Each structure stands twice: as structure tokens, then as C-alpha cells.
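User: Some background: our group keeps a shared notebook of sequences we're curious about, and every so often someone picks one and asks for a predicted structure to add to the entry. Today it's my turn. The entry only has the sequence so far, pasted here. Could you supply the structure so I can complete it?
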Amino acid sequence: MTTTHNPQLTIHNSQLTTHLHLTHTFNLKKVYFIPGLGADSRSFNFLDLSFCEPQFVQWLRPNANETLETYALRLFESINDETATIVGLSFGGMLATEIAKIHPQTKVILISSAKTYKEIPGYLRFWRHVPVYKFVTKNSMRMGKLVLTILGAKGKEQKLLQLQILQSSNPTFTRWAMDAIVNWRNETVPENVIHIHGTNDKLLPFRNVKAHHVIEKGEHVLVMDRAEELSSVLKHLITR
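Assistant: Of course. Here's the predicted structure to add to the notebook entry:
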């Protein structure tokens, strides 16, 4: 028995596959990611974000004496979507909380962050009175190995990336951001905020926060050391 190949059918199937792929791509939800202090989009490299269309928010140059609140509102101008889904990491989560307060139709997800100043540990809040962070320089930013244990990066690949991020941080921005954090006095927890936190977080200890989703044994760098589990949680929260 001879099998006849139908070239028209092959072309049709190929076009259908391409159409379905493009339709799937166009239907992906835009999700805006705000990285942690001094970091950038590389912080999210270990996550599987295939379920969305990630948009990585770029830092703005802070104005003189600018507060965390006013900076957050300026940052939102680059998003400009009242129903946006925003994922904030660490410092980025604090900024996202301020956005959520002013834009209640947004959906905000915090990772390894704090919703209020009371969730920030006392030693960081003490820096408000003893601002040692004002002495941060480019050379001190290169001493990244000293903070790797606190951040919780594990394995050669994670540690290398975290060191590269720390070493490329802008010390001027870091000094401003630390000042903004220690002077942040927010006590409002917006209803449109969902908080994900790891139980082994050393920078923002788990005992200080009230998280909606808990990652057991997760470090501060959940986006790296528990990337698979976190990706699953994000997919569930964003696509449901």
C-alpha cells in the first residue's frame, strides 16, 4: 500500500502551529518586576517566567531627599497601568507596597520584603539614628562575600551572580535607598498585596513578618535558592 503525502496539509498544519504559538504569546499577561536594592533583572534569572510576559522596571535617579513613597509613585509612571500585576523583590517590594496604596486596582506580590516599617528588623531601623550606610563606597560594595551568608545564595552559580550584582551596584543609589528604608514609616497593609517569605530569611527575619505564602527554609534570595517552588507559587497567583 502506497502512502500519498499531501503537501497542502503539511503547510496548513505548519501555519496552524505558528498561529497557535503566536496566539499563546500574545495572550501572556504582562507582569512588572521591581528588583531589590541596587539589583537589576538578573535577580530573576533563576525563575521560570514562561507563564507571563515579564517587564523589568528600570531604576530612576532619585531626587535629593526623595522619600520612598514619592520615588515609588514616580516609578509607577513607567508602568502606567491601573490594573497592573507587580512583583516586588525586597526593597522593590516596599516600593510596590506604596504603589498598591495609591493604586488599589493593581495586584502586588512581595517576595522577601516588608509591608510596613514594623516588619523591618530593629538593627536596620537603628540605622536611622546611626546612619553608617552613608559611608558606603564603590570599594565597600566590592566586599560582597561578607553579605552572601546573610542573603543566602547557595552554590557557585548563585554566589557568582549575587557577587556580580553587588559589585555593579551604584553606591550613590544604595546610600539613598538605605536612607529611604530606615526613614520609611508606613503602617498600612493594602488589601491588594500578597506577601511571599522564606522561613530562613536572615536579612528580613520571618518572625517579623506576616506572610500569605511561606517557603520553608527559604533564604532572603528566594528567587535563587528556591526558584522552582517560587516560580510555581507565582504562576498560581498570577494566572488564577
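Suggested note for the entry: Residues 72 and 95 are 5 Å apart (CA to CA). The radius of gyration is 21 Å.
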